[in-house]
Specification:
This protein has about 250 residues and is α/β, with parallel strands linked by helices. The protein has eight helices and eight strands, in the order E-E-H-H-E-H-E-H-E-H-H-E-H-E-H-E. About 30% of the residues lie in helices and about 20% in strands. Strands 1-2-3-4-5-6-7-8 form an eight-stranded mixed sheet, covered by helices on one side. Helix 4 packs parallel to helix 6. The N terminus is likely disordered.
Length: about 250
């Protein structure tokens, strides 16, 4: 298995080190109750086989970077029309320029939602402590005993636990979520995740959609039926305050 490691360019101006691999100018579904845009960071320290953001994860598939100032100029021009910025990936917390980028976004008056795999709790803590994030969505990939199998790398699960507890205890709004591939996670595994995040505010089960995936073998994998998802949901609804299926 691969070793978990930071992915960052050479030293320099921190905001110039923020690698933007994609930019979606409008979304109504990615930031709860807000009209937003999405910034996709380039690079990830996990190798989840079901991942569909291949061009943001595999270095050999990287496309050209989008200039940070180009995105900031767009945001400045959309003040009063857009409300939020979703920062996703890849994995944003491995970006050395993340904090500086968010500072610039917040200075323009936007709310910030961070999507993260939870592997860098110290980064999450700094962002929370400095008031730089307004909503956090953490992917809980698997029960701890299956984490490395699902993520395809060596994972310090203590960091995953630390991020879960940090997010739960913060004043920042949040959700946990799990992408469900039938061949990877059993109903018992999902109940174990429910136990892991017990007492959480919000948890979503996300249906895996076959298509272009990091591992081409996963393009033909499946997820559970609507009825099966409802049974799984019922089995863990006592663990969290709100649970949904996407």
């Amino acid at each position: 298995m691969m070793e978990l490691a930071d992915i960052s360019p050479a030293q320099g101006n921190p905001i110039c080190m923020f690698r933007i691999g994609g930019f979606q100018k409008f979304t109504l579904i990615d930031y709860p109750a807000k009209v937003a845009c999405i910034v996709f960071t380039q690079g990830c320290n996990f190798r989840c086989r079901y991942c569909y953001n291949v061009e943001l994860v595999l270095p050999e598939k990287y496309g050209p970077l989008i200039e940070v100032e180009e995105v900031l100029t767009f945001l400045e021009s959309r003040r009063g029309m857009l409300e939020g910025v979703v920062i996703t990936g890849g994995e944003p917390t491995i970006q050395k320029g993340l904090e500086k980028f968010i500072e610039r976004v917040k200075a323009l008056g936007y709310s910030v939602k961070l999507d993260t795999n939870g592997s860098k709790p110290q980064v999450i803590k700094e962002l929370i402590d400095k008031g730089l994030v307004d909503y956090i969505a953490m992917d809980v990939k698997a029960p701890l005993y299956k984490y490395e199998e699902v993520c395809g790398v060596k994972v310090d699960t203590e960091r995953i636990l630390e991020s879960i507890e940090l997010i739960k205890s913060s004043s920042v709004d949040y959700e946990f979520r799990t992408t469900v591939v039938r061949e990877q996670l059993t109903p018992e595994d999902i109940r174990a995740i429910g136990e892991l995040i017990r007492g959480s505010k919000r948890y979503y089960l996300q249906k895996f959609i076959p298509g272009k995936t990091l591992d081409p073998e996963f393009s033909s994998k499946s997820t559970y039926s609507k009825e099966e998802f409802e049974r799984i949901k019922d089995s863990i609804k006592g663990y969290v305050k709100e649970i949904g299926i996407r």
